[in-house]
Amino acid sequence: MIEKPPGPFDPGTGPGAPSADPDVHRAAAELARRVGPAVRLTVMTGAGVSAASGVPTFRGPEGLWKRYRPEQLATPDAFARDPRLVWEWYDWRRQVIARCHPNRAHEVLAAWARRFTRAIVVTQNVDGLHERAGLVDVVRLHGSIWEVFCSEACPGSPPRWRDERVPLPDLPPPCPYCGGHIRPGVVWFGEALPADAVARADAATTCDVFVAAGTSALVYPAAGFLHQARRRGAFTVEINPAATEASASVDLVIRAGAEVALDAVERHLAAHA
Ligand code: OAD
């Protein structure tokens, strides 16, 4: 059985108040000077962008991988061994995410995508909060927790479909087409990323400004896109309250929660519109 969450997740930096930190203010102003409708802007997001919404991150003191072992829950072997256990974990995560709402970071990115025609968001997140904030076109590198597909790839079933039932009535949920098991539409350890998403993310590293927001920059190939963007001449930015593997190699660091940093950038843009 999956242990239920120990209590309300501490989202860390809360949304709402503008940042009073002068370093954050300065760095946000610098990023604001560099973005706009004519700029090819790529923002790659990770779990930290949803932290202020209450979605647990994977690493760090409160991270999911502190409490759970990926090889038991997020690999094809784990699913073959114990599909019910794997589904209990995903069903629990779906319940947690269903109670969460997009935060200011999701909102600002959705607004940029509307205003800046050359902006693109690439995400490692499977929670769907970018879409719920109104972002229409997001490149999903790791799939979606709200999609499923038949684990047998049975001939009658579509390649994948949305299933937003929370909680799921039967675990493991049966495939409505063949009666086998469906599985979450997320990328597991040891699996290839969706080729179309990788191709779009790769193309998006040819840009003027590349922002990595809320990611530990440890999981490849996603983590490699930042370095590739830098090699291709982009101005690179990290938004993260903590230092990461990427911190030393970016051009600009905004040491704050994404919901604070992106809000600060948006305020600068509004003030100078
Ligand atoms: P991680 O959990 O590895 O890292 C989250 C990052 O967010 C950390 O660097 C935190 O410091 C930072 N963070 C925390 N709060 C934040 C906030 N309010 N604003 C901005 N940043 C904040 O998450 P990812 O890098 O996304 O893969 O993890 C990458 C992949 O590893 C995930 O997609 C998942 C996981 O295993 C799969 O499931 C395939």
What's the short version?
The chain is an alpha/beta fold and 273 residues long. It contains ten helices and nine strands.
Please specify the SSE layout and strand pairing.
Layout: H1 22-34, E1 41-45, H2 64-67, H3 70-73, H4 76-81, H5 83-98, H6 104-115, E2 119-123, H7 129-132, E3 138-140, E4 143-150, E5 161-162, E6 182-186, H8 195-203, E7 209-213, H9 222-231, E8 235-239, E9 252-254, H10 258-271
Parallel strand pairs: 1-2, 1-7, 2-3, 7-8, 8-9
Antiparallel strand pairs: 4-5, 4-6
Helix pairs in contact: 1-10, 6-10
The structure holds 2'-O-acetyl adenosine-5-diphosphoribose (OAD).
2'-O-acetyl adenosine-5-diphosphoribose binds near residues 52, 63, 240 and 257.
Kindly identify the CATH topology of the largest domain: Rossmann fold
| Gross geometry | elongated
Q: H/E element string? A: HEHHHHHEHEEEEHEHEEH
The biggest beta sheet reads: 6 strands, parallel
- The largest beta-sheet arranges its strands as 3-2-1-7-8-9
Number of helices: 10
The stretches of 5 or more residues where confidence is low (pLDDT under 50) are 1-16
Computed over alpha carbons, the radius of gyration is 19 Å
Structural domain tally: 2
If you average the pLDDT, what whole number results? 93
Q: What class, by secondary structure content?
A: alpha/beta
What top-tier CATH class of the largest domain fits best?
A: Alpha Beta
Strand percentage, roughly? 15-25%
* Range of helix content: 25-40%
- CATH superfamily descriptor of the largest domain: TPP-binding domain
**Could you say which small molecules are bound to this protein?**
2'-O-acetyl adenosine-5-diphosphoribose
The CA-CA distance between the termini, in Å, is: 54 Å
Q: Which second-level CATH architecture of the largest domain applies? A: 3-Layer(aba) Sandwich
Number of strands: 9
